Amino acid sequence: MNNYAKYKGMMRKIADIQYSSAVLSWDQETYMPPKGANFRAQQLSTLAGIGHELATSKELGEILNALSSDASLSEKEKRNIKQSLKNYNDNLKYTTAFVEELSKTISETFQAWQKAKADNNFALYAPYLEKLVKLKREECKLLGTFAHPYDALLNQYEPGAKTADLELLFTDVRNQLVAFVKKIAAKPQNEDKFMFLHFDKTKQWEFGLDLLKQMGYDFEGGRQDASSHPFTTNFSSQDVRVTTRVNEKDINEMIWSCIHEGGHALYEQGLPSEEYGLPSGEYVSLGIHESQSRLWENNVGRSLGYWKGNFSKLTKAFPDNFKSVSFEDFYKAMNIVKPSLIRTSADELTYHFHVLIRFEIEKALIEGTIEVNDLSSYWNSKYKEYLGLDVPSDSKGVLQDIHWSHGSFGYFPTYSLGSFYAAQFFAQAKKEIKGLESEIEKGNMKPLLDWLREKVHKHGKYYSAEELCISITGEKLNFKYFMDYATNKYTQLYNL
Amino acid sequence: MNNYAKYKGMMRKIADIQYSSAVLSWDQETYMPPKGANFRAQQLSTLAGIGHELATSKELGEILNALSSDASLSEKEKRNIKQSLKNYNDNLKYTTAFVEELSKTISETFQAWQKAKADNNFALYAPYLEKLVKLKREECKLLGTFAHPYDALLNQYEPGAKTADLELLFTDVRNQLVAFVKKIAAKPQNEDKFMFLHFDKTKQWEFGLDLLKQMGYDFEGGRQDASSHPFTTNFSSQDVRVTTRVNEKDINEMIWSCIHEGGHALYEQGLPSEEYGLPSGEYVSLGIHESQSRLWENNVGRSLGYWKGNFSKLTKAFPDNFKSVSFEDFYKAMNIVKPSLIRTSADELTYHFHVLIRFEIEKALIEGTIEVNDLSSYWNSKYKEYLGLDVPSDSKGVLQDIHWSHGSFGYFPTYSLGSFYAAQFFAQAKKEIKGLESEIEKGNMKPLLDWLREKVHKHGKYYSAEELCISITGEKLNFKYFMDYATNKYTQLYNL
User: Fold this and answer.
1) In what order do the strands lie in the sheet with A222-226?
2) Which CATH code fits B164-493?
């Protein structure tokens, strides 16, 4: 066996462990009975430790170092080796003990968060989160020298991202989007009461499955289950699962989580399965991942054309609820812009204020400017500042998101990056795909999916996010595309 | 950390890997989409390999050997060490490559079996099974010298069991049970058509959950899902799951699989969770495990008293189906003795002929007296011989059971052992628990469960099966208790 084949074998084994962990995590959030939690935390910690040992083995290091100067490799193979060597060297910075402790702390913090959120009791969560933040600060130090310590965490989700660049980007968000949302707020608000009537759970579930099928999600290689926080996970590109949340009194939750997670899942299903375990079989970054979910959710799912066919299906499923609602009313209702407390149900414009707030908090928390005990009041003051809202309870405030309980600091900014990439990619798709919008109106998503497969999915991590963006659109990420999209759409919707 | 604490840590880690595999297997048989199968096989194989490496590590061997002469240990600790050292030495006989190949072959064979059974096409399955049988014969050789090569496999499920002893036991079955069943066959048969009307799936599901609750199954530490072959699995004693199969045209399947798997699950839920990963936290043997499921299924579940309360619940759930059925008719219907093709739906007497056939086939297959290609015709001739039946198709014949596709040879005999232990234990329980039968009539299963917890569950693997049987009943396994139970019950039911 040559070195590259050995490398592939080792990477597959590491992936086997990571995907096994993913199965255990999926189960933890969908079906696991409550008493299973403690031993599950221990099992995940053991798997994390073993995965880490394999990912930092001397043998892997030797092979990677040998292959890094092997001129006979193809360009794709070279890029795989470069990427894997970088990951290897990053992984070496962690001890197995640290990885196991982090994994165990995350499981415990996640459980504490669930209880704290249900009971609206931040104090139940705080001691666990404190421990986790301490570990995260330690992690920044382990990972070495960055311009800003938070960069180390950002890079785990968005390789190459810098705190300084994000500050510039969010300055644009503040300057341009805040003003634009104010213009909207000055106009009369549209009606959306009919989205909050009673919607039968089973019918909603069936409707969501139909939306996923229409997008091209392959149910032979995936499935949808219920969880308290919708997510997509995968155990190979042949087993990509989504979860959703169905609220009987709000049809929005099911619709947007199905389309959003469906977008993520299409990306994973489009990755080359023969590259299992290698960078060339992986997504580029969370920002690019999110570009796929946001493109489907917002640029497609919240467009007039998408609902031309789908609205009649919806009215067939819920005839009473929509009997006096016109197609135009429905389009307006799903695009109401209005400051609100909960990120996941925010509109596509004010959404970025939610991200901005979390970005500022995380930065301060990692810097050590604020501590876990300050979180609730800091959070509430930011919501007042950016969204003009008083936060009535921690459950609707600082406890709302799962991310910190999972140890995911540096993750939130990728949501905004995703929306901005999506706008830029979709503008390009409209240029390149003949009759794209009329195909979407007909419910034919294949041309768009084929384009995304070709432009994004099939490349795995061959390109960096920046390279990919340039290869598709001819330029780096540019906030202008998002502002153009927003301006065109909402000027018309609100008669600005 | 002292050696015993180190030993515990290592055993917990091995258990973490084994239970992670169990989660992946549970998912494979309940929720996994079809395309996920190939990579799942690979993931299970990797976990099996890692588990094997840990279970055969030099470090573990050194600690076990040191502890095996440590006089300061408690009796329980000494027994743990003795058992673990035996397992360690057995595991050393396997190479990691063999374990990984076995795991991968099993996953592939399982998939082939599923297709073959659905298509009634043994040929789809045969080449995989051949490979697996070859590996199993190799395994017998690896495991060393036994009086009979099949002993090596039997011992994996029933430590201490011998082919020669089973032959004696099954001679009793042949001599006594065959004659008794013939006496029954000469009598007029009871009616059970009403068990095969239409039974709504959801109502059946709910009814099954009620039966489990009544038995004392803890849903905070478990759950029930659907699978094509009912099973119990656990990922600690705090997460013990059952599956069932609901047939709209046969209420028997749901009832007996719920009670049967419930019995297994109660055993696992009763094992001491603080002994996680150690012999003292494990079940004794599959025969003892099966004694728990059979005791609940047959000695309790098929008794007149059990249905005194539960029959009225059943008639409430399905009023039309049972409107002209008396409680006595129902009791007779669930205890019909009649030769049939499918083991899992056999009555509690002819059941043992199904096991006997499999025992004879496995022995011959491992000896090499027959080959996989002979299986179908050999099977059919045995069904003619013992049950007087012509097998119409392989799906209803040699393809009916999951076991061989899982590589489980030597497993079937434990089913009969379980029934025989159950009869012996239940006879003792009736002596020791005051008013046991009237408590069961009232639907109060707690006295029985408490007795089982005290006599069986809480001890883990402290005792061997034989020791446990003696400690509970004062004597070794004795087929007489089963024959007494059968004779009393069916003499009355069939007016013999």
Assistant:
1) A222-226, A240-244, A232-234
2) 1.10.1370.30
Task: List, for chain B, all residue ranges whose pLDDT scores fall below the cut of 50.
Answer: none
pLDDT of A104 higher than 90: no
* B275 included as an active-site residue: no
Contacts of B277 in chain A (CB under 8 A): none
Nearest C-alpha in A relative to B100: A13
CB B254 within 8 Å of CB B414: no
Instruction: Please give the Cα distance from B266 to B452 (Å, whole number).
Output: 9
Angstrom distance (rounded) from CA A457 to CA A443: 21
Contact A50 B17 (CB under 8 A): yes
For tokens 């001599």, what's the residue? B175
Strands B222-226 and B240-244: parallel
Q: Which residue among B13, B36, B47 sits closest to A239, beta carbon to beta carbon?
A: B36
Averaged pLDDT for residues A463-479: 97
Among A18, A19, A26, smallest CA distance to A227 is for A26
> First-to-last CA distance in chain A?
66
Residue closest to B126 by CA, chosen among B405, B380, B401, B458:
B405
- Would residue A479 be called left, alpha or beta, if left means φ above 0 and alpha means ψ between -120 and 50 degrees? alpha
The full DSSP string for A284-328 is: S-HHHHHHHHHIIIIIITTSHHHHHHHHHHHHHHSTTTTTT--HH
Write the single-letter amino acid at B446. K
Q: A39 vs B238: CB contact, 8 Å cut-off?
A: yes
SS3 label, residue B388: coil
Nearest to B50 among A38, A42, A50 (CB): A50
Domain boundaries, chain A: 3-145, 164-493
The DSSP output letter for A175 is I
Handedness of CA A297, A302, A304, A309 (dihedral sign): positive
| Residue B35 distance to chain A (closest CA, Å) | 5
pLDDT at site A1: 76
pLDDT of residue B228: 85
Q: Where are the alpha helices (DSSP H) in B368-478?
A: 375-387, 413-432, 436-441, 446-455, 465-473
Give contacts of B17 with chain A, Cβ < 8 Å. 46-47, 50
Q: Which residues of B touch A269 (CB under 8 A)?
A: none
| This prediction's pTM | 0.93
